[in-house]
Amino acid sequence: MIKYRSALVVVACGAALAAPAVASAQDVSTSPTTPTTPTTSFTPPPMQYPFIAVSPAKAKAGEDILVSVGCAAGDLGEVKSMVLDHIGKFEVTSEEPVILGAVAHIDGKARPGFYAVTATCKTKPVTINLEVTAIPTPSSKPPKPTVSPVKPVPTGNPGPSARVGSGRQVSKIPVGAPQTGGGPFS
Q1: What single-letter DSSP state applies at residue 184?
Q2: What is the DSSP secondary-structure string of 49-83?
Q3: Which residues, including other chains, have CB under 8 Å from residue 97's CB and lie 6 or more apart?
Q4: Is the dihedral of CA 66, 71, 74, 75 positive or negative?
Q5: Contact predicate 130/83, CB 8 Å
Q6: pLDDT at residue 136, rounded to an integer
Q7: End-to-end CA, the chain
Q8: 28 — phi, psi (to 5°)?
Q9: Are 160 and 169 in contact (CB under 8 A)?
């Protein structure tokens, strides 16, 4: 009796879950003259305004980067970072939303690490991290393989040659196929 009661509950729950799906599938009405098209559209999340961005986010010492600030042109205050030795004039790069951009130069003596870049929009500071990566040095490259020199064999001797350090030399070069033993009568 308990087995049947449990099965009845499972069937009842399944029917209760399936009923809304069937009902919603039947509620869809289409007219024969207009094709159905999905009405889903992506709405991006609201932008956090003001904002600051750097591109690329990883750069080497001595390179130029683009600093973008989302802030009204009249509200943009100071933009600074201890790793940037020069920041160009900010110009409007986008009207809606207003984005100002300028080229900045990373100090050639900057050490690898993360550095804050801060902009002030009216009285609100916004900050982003810029990663300065290491400049590859010649010593960080893998060493080139070296080839040990081979002693040349004199040309006057038509005899066999062997590389130096290979162990023993062969006095006569064998001719023909190697004899491995075996065969049809072994």
Answers
A1: T
A2: SSEEEEESSEEETT-EEEEEEES-TTTEEEEE-TT
A3: 47, 49, 70
A4: negative
A5: yes
A6: 77
A7: 80
A8: -70, 120
A9: yes
Spatial distance between the Cα atoms of 90 and 121, rounded to a whole number of angstroms: 13
Rounded to 5°, the CA angle 120-62-90 comes to 30
pLDDT at 72: 85
**Burial class (CB within 10 angstroms; exposed 0-12, middle 13-18, buried 19+) of 106:** buried
Q: Which of 8-17, 26-35, 84-93 has the lowest mean pLDDT?
A: 8-17
Give the CA distances from residue 64 to residues 5, 38, 68, 103, 105, in Å, rounded to whole numbers and listed in that order: 74, 45, 13, 7, 4
pTM beyond 0.70: the answer is no
* Token output for 49: 């305004």
Residues 149 and 169: their CA atoms lie apart, in Å, by 18
* Beta carbons within 8 Å of 92's beta carbon, 6+ residues apart: 73, 98, 99, 100
Q: Could you tell me if residue 5 is left (phi over 0), alpha (psi between -120 and 50 degrees) or otherwise beta?
A: alpha
